[in-house]
Automatic annotation (TrEMBL):
The keyword tRNA processing applies. It is found in: Cytoplasm; Nucleus. CDD domains: Elp5. Pathway: tRNA modification; 5-methoxycarbonylmethyl-2-thiouridine-tRNA biosynthesis. This is Elongator complex protein 5.
Length: 257
């Protein structure tokens, strides 16, 4: 991410908030106060307050963040530049808990913007920090060097997640212009041609007209043709010598009960 101008995008957001009249506090671990004064236009510098953690990181330890920023009575935006450097000096658990406390306990805090170089941290740490954010912006290299690309994931209070891909131009005076949504083109899957099972065989599976006629006229051994006229049934029984023929209607008729 160091090569993808993520910090420049962060500076553009900072400049935008300052130009809107908002008070912006920058907790800087990566740059000194003089660097910020040279970076931002004069009309924006007056509304930006620098908390110099670059020279004194221990003074702005994560566990002191709530104490420092609770003193602010006016609504303000907090910019952390960057969380990656803060994690070099301090434990991940301290940074995570302090971010959570900032969001819950500092009443005048309206927005927190933080820069994180995801390629220098463990995946589970990045996932936990993303969980705290309502919106994450992932910068990527654009084919056009004059453009910057950004994938946006926004999580609404209802739990619905919106995903967008945008491209834009970053100007020298820290403005974001020509914002366009990137439409993802669905790749059409090639239709697989059905293979003919009869192809490349040494014999033919298909019948000619003459062969079909011969097949239909063939009478198989187990097929009997229906005979004309109505059929009838007959049972023939030949008595044996041992058979006893009784002419009486009821053999038990002479019994008295």
């Amino acid at each position: 991410t160091l090569e993808l101008r993520a910090r420049l995008i962060l500076d553009c957001f900072t400049n935008t908030w300052a130009n809107r009249g908002s008070s912006v506090h920058i907790l800087s671990y990566d740059r000194g106060k003089d660097a910020f004064q040279k970076c931002f236009p004069a009309n924006a510098v007056d509304r930006i307050i620098i908390h110099d953690a670059f020279g004194t990181p221990d003074k702005y330890a994560p566990l002191t963040w709530v104490k420092h920023f609770s003193e602010q009575k006016e609504p303000f935006t907090l910019v952390i530049d960057s969380l990656s450097t803060a994690l070099i000096y301090h434990q991940f658990e301290d940074v995570y808990v302090s971010l959570l406390c900032l969001l819950r306990k500092v009443e005048s805090l309206q927005l927190v913007m933080a820069l994180l170089h995801t390629d220098v941290h463990e995946e589970h740490q990045v996932s936990k920090l993303r969980y705290l954010a309502n919106t994450t912006l992932t910068v990527y290299a654009h084919e056009n060097e004059k453009l910057a690309g950004c994938k946006i994931v926004h999580r609404k209070p209802s739990g619905r997640v919106l995903r967008e891909d945008e491209e834009f131009v970053l100007t020298a005076d820290l403005l974001i212009t020509d914002i366009k949504k990137v439409v993802c083109k669905k790749e059409e899957k090639p239709v697989a041609q059905q293979v003919d099972p009869a192809a490349n065989l040494t014999f033919s599976l298909r019948l000619s007209d003459e062969e079909k006629a011969a097949k239909d006229s063939l009478v198989l051994p187990y097929i009997k043709r229906s005979s004309a006229g109505r059929g009838k049934g007959e049972i023939t029984y030949v008595m044996e010598r041992e058979d006893d023929f009784d002419e009486e209607d009821d053999p038990d008729d002479d019994l008295n009960f």
